[in-house]
Amino acid sequence: MRIILASSSPRRSELLEMLKISFEKRPSSIDEKNTFYEKPEQIVMGLSFEKAFQIAHLEPDAIVIGSDTIVYLDEVLGKPENKSDAYHMLRKLSGRTHDVYTGIAVICESRKIKRVDYVKTEVVFNELSDAEIQAYIDTGEPLDKAGAYGIQGQGALLVKQIRGDYFSVMGLPLSKLNKIMIDEFRINLLTREGL
């Protein structure tokens, strides 16, 4: 079966490529800013579903994967609007523990399969000096990432510890994805059974 990733995220593509499975990339065009969900897990599951459903409707015979990630500390910390916004987010995260929620939706219209779930991971930040925050912002890395950091890049230097799923912090919970694929499609991404 064809597998489609309903995302433009290079990180999500890299994670699927790491598994050495064949997939197509077809980003959805949903507006992520207008969300009516309240709790963090509802936000990521709702947006993941909307992304996957939009593409699944156009590709009913394919397995479509949608995912969404947010950083949460007293409030949702989305992608920063500018460097100043990134600074305030990183200052808020400094020395504290925050939650990263990543939703995942796997849909196949022709088989009437719609699975949605999420993973919550705790991330502990080091105490950051103003110089460190500024140096990180100057890399340009924070500007297109939820919470203004990427754990897979130089943002790794900000992180003291994580409790949970590292790959969900990167943007795609691979273990959860494999479980859904096994449960719903009898496809094991590790053994290649069913592919």
UniProtKB/TrEMBL annotation:
Its main location: cytoplasm. The active site is at D68. InterPro entries: ITPase-like_fam (IPR029001), Maf-like (IPR003697). It catalyses: UTP + H2O = UMP + diphosphate + H(+); dTTP + H2O = dTMP + diphosphate + H(+). Its EC number is 3.6.1.9. It is found in: Cytoplasm. The keyword Cell membrane does not apply. Nucleoside triphosphate pyrophosphatase that hydrolyzes dTTP and UTP. May have a dual role in cell division arrest and in preventing the incorporation of modified nucleotides into cellular nucleic acids. Belongs to the Maf family. YhdE subfamily. This is dTTP/UTP pyrophosphatase. It comes from Fusibacter ferrireducens.
